[in-house]
Amino acid sequence: MISVTASLRAAVPSLLFANLQNVTKKAAIINIGTKLFSSCTKRQNNQSLQENSKKQLLKLSATRIKMDRHCCSHSGLFGNDLIFRQLLEYKSYTYTYLLADKVSLDAVIIDPVIETVDRDVRLVRDLGLNLLYAINTHVHADHITGSGQIRNRIPTCKSVIAEVSKAKADVHVKEGDHLKFGKFELEVRSTPGHTDGCLSFVLHDKSMVFTGDALLIRGCGRTDFQQGSASTLYDSVHKKILSLPKNFMIFPGHDYTGQTMSTVDEELRFNHRLTRSKSEFIKIMKELNLPYPSQIEKALPANMVCGLYEVPN
């Protein structure tokens, strides 16, 4: 704290202190002292404000650091033991999912696309992951899978597809199988109807289900080709997906409206196709009259051999 007396002595000539007999001089000194005291008080207040501001900035910085760590570690919604990325391929609006055990760094990737293999491989390497499986939810008709190329570039990785699909892969799975990565495992559920080889993958530990094209947000996959059946799809979705607890999060294979996820509860209430009766659903699907996917002639033969196929230009 600055001494008022010292400030007075510095500002007022010493003669005034030796001979203060004159009232006018006394008044002048009082006036000077008042101004100096006010100045000192303001300086002290400014110093206090600066110190408080510094403290507030430090608190905000600490909070921001905590938030950054929170986001990077994906704690909260998915806990602090799971690495999760939802990735988009813009041409076919396909979602690719990367999941990993944060401790062991064992990982799986679901529905990679050939156009984004470089991105996916780079992300796996950036995060130091040990990629075990490149999983296909079904034989896609609208894009070529990237699972074959990823398998060739990452030696630990094996390609996965449904046994009933008859497509080539390192691992063929069926209803009730499990794919383990670190302490986690995906339960395989057969959900045919869009195609006869459609699979959904349930991560029970995190209340997540990856539905491919069987169930979309407020919709579902088409049923007019590739052994599709509206009746079968209706049963598959209701018995294998919408039968999960209502809080389970649904991550679809595509979305064309900018949405990223839903829940079992939401789809039971708001899915305008699957909230109808089975007969109404079959009628809706029959009357869609959708054009065929633009890449179907390239995608189907390529995906039957894990995407490793010399497609015509």
Describe the structure.
The protein has helices spanning 4-11, 14-18, 23-73, 117-126, 147-153, 230-241, 264-270, 278-286, 296-303, and strands at residues 82-89, 94-101, 106-110, 130-135, 158-162, 171-173, 178-181, 184-190, 199-203, 208-212, 215-216, 219-220, 249-252, 262-263. The protein has 313 residues and is α/β, with parallel strands linked by helices. The strands form three sheets. The protein has a six-stranded mixed beta sheet with strand order 1-2-3-4-5-6. A hairpin with an 8-residue loop joins β8 (184-190) and β9 (199-203). α1 (4-11) packs across α3 (23-73) and α6 packs across α8. The longest helix is centred in the N-terminal third of the chain and has 51 residues, at 23-73. Mean pLDDT is 84; it is low at 1-24 and 60-75.
Termini Cα gap: 82 Å
**Largest sheet, order of strands side by side?**
1-2-3-4-5-6
What structural class do you assign from the helix and strand content? alpha/beta
Shape from CA axes?
globular
Radius of gyration of CA atoms, rounded to a whole number: 33 Å
DSSP strand content: 15-25%
Largest β-sheet summary: 6 strands, mixed
Average pLDDT works out at 84
Q: Which regions have little confidence, pLDDT < 50, spanning 5+ residues?
A: 1-24, 60-75
Helix proportion of residues, in percent?
25-40%
Topology order in helix (H) and strand (E) letters: HHHEEEHEHEEEEEEEEHEEHHH
Tally the helices: what do you get?
9
Features:
313 residues, alpha/beta, 6-stranded mixed β-sheet, 9 helices, disordered N terminus, single chain, globular
